[in-house]
């Protein structure tokens, strides 16, 4: 009887101090365009502890990426990924870690990109809010971003060329990441 009271008291105390563990989520704007929500969730479940360390500044990209690759490889080899392979789960993790770290190191660049893109992509954001297909909107957003750097840029022509022949304006990754973030928010 005394053990039951002590156990009940400890359980009640733990419930009263219900401290939920914070697990960082994979930023959806960082995922490869061909990744499914299921694949993102699987990756998130495998590496959320690593993402926590990246987000808190305790891990840099290289170590975090190495740890994530090891966890993913082991999970794939143990058939714990619902048939999803290393070839998709690893890029999801790598992109998430890279973008999370970049946002941490260059918050001003992301804030400035968001200000600029809210204006530059305003019409496209409205179209997505009204139901425009997200994938089509992403391509159009990328084209608008490239044209903002070089008005003569022809997206379809350049991306039809072999990569070694492309002449693409130099644009920071934050512009594309924030564009996808804004379009994802508009889609909701």
Range of strand content: under 5%
Task: Supply Rg.
Answer: 21 Å
Count of alpha and pi helical runs = 9
User: Structural class of the secondary structure composition?
Assistant: mainly alpha
**N-to-C order of helices and strands:** HHHHHHHHH
Q: What percent of the residues sit in helical stretches (DSSP H or I)?
A: 55-70%
Number of strands: 0
- Unreliable stretches (pLDDT < 50, length at least 5) are 5-20
Main sheet record: none
- The global form is globular
- N→C terminal distance: 54 Å
Overall mean confidence score, pLDDT: 89
Description:
The chain has 188 residues and is an all-alpha fold. It is built from nine helices and no strands. It is globular, with a radius of gyration of 21 Å.
In short:
It is built from 9 helices and no strands. The protein has 188 residues and is an all-alpha fold. It starts with a helix and ends with a helix.
How are the SSEs placed, and which strands pair?
Blueprint: H1 2-16, H2 37-55, H3 61-77, H4 86-105, H5 107-120, H6 122-129, H7 134-149, H8 155-160, H9 173-187
Helix pairs in contact: 2-3, 2-4, 3-4, 4-5, 5-9, 6-7, 6-9, 7-9
